UniProtKB/TrEMBL annotation:
Pfam families referenced in this protein's UniProt entry, alphabetically: Bmp
Source species of the chain: Agromyces salentinus
Position of the signal peptide: 1-28
Keyword Lipoprotein: yes
Name by which UniProt lists this protein: BMP family ABC transporter substrate-binding protein
Family: Belongs to the BMP lipoprotein family.
Bilayer topology term: Lipid-anchor
Domain ABC transporter substrate-binding protein PnrA-like: 46-353
Gene3D superfamilies for this protein: 3.40.50.2300
InterPro entries: BMP_lipoprotein, Mycoplasma_p48, Peripla_BP_I, PnrA-like
Keywords: Cell membrane, Lipoprotein, Membrane, Signal
Location(s), subcellular: Cell membrane
Length: 365
């Protein structure tokens, strides 16, 4: 089974629920045929969040997209890593001072600093990964020079939840996040919806530990570092008999992997953002699948557009329909997924795309 992210998937554009954004959305970028000569003086830049560019997750995907775009344009990008949230504003200013023409900010938490920088520097083009930068909640991005690239990952997480409930032998699956912020909880909420749907269809009672949909709260590490605190949160869920575990928050999956190995029993790990089987072979044997976001493709297209003088601030929203989100292969776990369960996951994907199943999320409202 493969429901994955491809460049061709950006031919369509899903839409925000907010009416103003519905009116402003346009088609995603075409394959660029612009001249690299026009981009010779173009300087693309990127600032990471505290996870850093080697997080084997969304920061790394953003970096890969920037690198690919820069190679096509024939330019050298500048990047800066943030060690903490307090670095965001100063790191952005350092890129402004170096003459960057386009700046990519990676992560929801960078949005306030990105807005301030974009407002102060209207001639610079900004790309915001994982946030609409809509601080007044009127349905539009707060600066005309910011392009949001965001993902309705609840749709893909729904499929992962249904799949997880289907392979669980203990009848208990778990999830935890780095922080209780929308770009994290959208995974957890979609996952829980998928488990609920499995129970409704099959008359089962698979439990989700670590996320309460009604309370919109659950288990969080308080950050995005792979540390002993994250391992302890994972261990607490494992102690409640989970046999499928979804960590949401960049490198915290590495701490979950340690807890899984220490448990000494079969527990499936779910990755997020990238296909973690490919980005981190050290945990490959544990991975049932990964919930994908096409961050690399989105960044590459946006930067190529900017480098060719065709910057388009229209928000891109990744969905199952445009393949901006999806599930990775089952890889080593393929034999553990019954053919009828795999077929059902594919059927559910088609039903979500057709609108026959609605997956709730803040991007679908």
């Amino acid at each position: 089974m493969k429901v994955t992210t491809k460049k061709a998937g950006f031919a369509g554009l899903a839409m925000f629920g907010a009416a103003a954004l519905l009116a402003g959305c346009a088609s995603a970028p075409e394959e660029s045929g612009g001249s690299t000569e026009a981009a010779s003086d173009f300087l693309p830049c990127m600032v990471s969040d505290a996870g850093g560019f080697d997080d084997k997750s969304f920061n790394q995907l953003g970096f890969e997209g920037l690198t690919a775009a820069s190679e096509e344009l024939g330019v050298e990008p500048k990047t800066v890593e943030s060690a903490a949230e307090t670095d965001y504003a100063s790191n952005l200013q350092s890129l402004v001072d170096q003459g960057c023409n386009a700046i990519v900010t990676v992560g929801f938490l960078l949005a306030p600093a990105a807005l301030e920088s974009a407002t102060d520097n209207p001639d610079i083009e900004y790309v915001s990964i994982d946030d609409t930068v809509d601080t007044d909640f009127d349905g539009t991005t707060d600066a005309e020079n910011i392009k949001p690239i965001i993902f309705d990952t609840a749709q893909a997480a729904f499929l992962a939840g249904y799949l997880s409930a289907g392979v669980s032998k203990t009848g208990v699956v778990g999830t935890f996040g780095g922080m209780n912020i929308p770009t994290v909880t959208i995974f957890m909420d979609g996952f829980a919806q998928g488990v609920d749907y499995y129970n409704e269809e099959n008359g089962t009672a698979v439990k989700v530990i670590g996320w309460d949909r009604d309370a919109q709260d659950g288990s969080f590490t308080g950050g995005f570092e792979a540390n002993d605190g994250a391992r302890q949160v994972a261990q607490g869920l494992i102690d409640q008999n989970v046999d499928v575990l979804l960590p949401v928050g960049g490198p915290i999956y590495q701490s979950a992997a340690v807890a899984i190995r220490d448990a000494g029993r079969e527990i499936a790990l779910l990755g997020v953002d990238a296909d973690v089987f490919e980005t981190d072979p050290e945990v490959a044997d544990l991975l049932l699948t990964s919930i994908l976001k096409g961050i690399d493709v989105g960044v590459e297209d946006a930067i190529i557009e900017a480098g060719n003088g065709e910057f388009d601030a229209t928000p891109f929203v990744g969905t199952l329909e445009n393949e901006g989100v999806g599930l990775a292969d089952y890889h080593d776990w393929a034999d553990a997924v019954p053919a009828d369960l795999d077929a059902k996951v594919q059927e559910l994907r088609d039903q979500i795309i057709a609108g026959d199943i609605t997956v709730e999320s803040y991007l679908a409202e």
